[in-house]
Write a structure and sequence with these properties.
By secondary structure, this protein is an alpha+beta fold. It has helices at residues 6-15, 115-125, 154-165; strands at residues 29-34, 43-44, 56-60, 66-70, 84-85, 87-92, 101-109, 129-138, 143-151, 170-175.
Length: 176
């Protein structure tokens, strides 16, 4: 069988895992205020992959969503400045906002009926949001799909990868 062992998958993920979060000695949590308001839904852009610790900007997209980018992101140079909003990072002692990270996975799959349903069920069981799921390559022996998901931490990512690795027909799961 071509499936990777769990240990090898774990090692691959650990090498390519999300940036380590800094531990705050006072266990402070971070929240994001956009335009002076808390709890405004926003999306961290996938082009520049901003982190809360980066110099960031937010703007209202044409579809009326709030998108956060690094200030130096090339894609926002032509955005109308009237669409920009103030972004403030607030540190406090209460947990008000949890940062999600977008993670790209590459699935190598031996196609069979209903495999997409099985993949989606694993993501649903882990309460993971699918950002993108697209076929990127087709060969005689396998189909390659890019899966982009929102996750909170390494533990959640590992649970998803373990679950996807158990899906019948999934030959390999790797981090993009």
């Amino acid at each position: 069988t071509l499936k990777l062992s769990k240990e090898r998958v774990h090692r691959n993920i650990e090498r390519k895992i999300l940036p380590k979060r800094k531990e705050n000695k006072k266990s402070e949590e971070v929240s994001v205020e956009i335009g002076g308001e808390k709890n405004i839904p926003y999306k961290l852009s996938s082009c520049c992959k901003p982190k809360i610790s980066d110099d960031i900007v937010a703007f209202v997209t044409k579809s009326n969503m709030v998108s956060i980018h690094k200030r130096k992101c090339k894609l926002i140079k032509n955005v109308d400045r009237n669409r920009f909003l103030d972004v403030e990072i607030v540190y406090n002692d209460q947990k008000t906002e949890i940062t999600k990270y977008q993670v790209g996975l590459l699935l190598e799959i031996n196609e069979r009926p209903a495999y997409i349903k099985d993949v989606v069920e694993i993501l649903d069981q882990n309460k993971v949001t699918i950002v993108d799921f697209a076929q990127i390559k087709r060969e005689v022996s396998a189909v390659y799909r890019r899966l982009v998901i929102d996750i909170y931490d390494e533990k959640e990512l590992q649970a998803v990868v373990d679950g996807l690795s158990r899906v019948s027909g999934v030959l390999k799961v790797s981090r993009l």
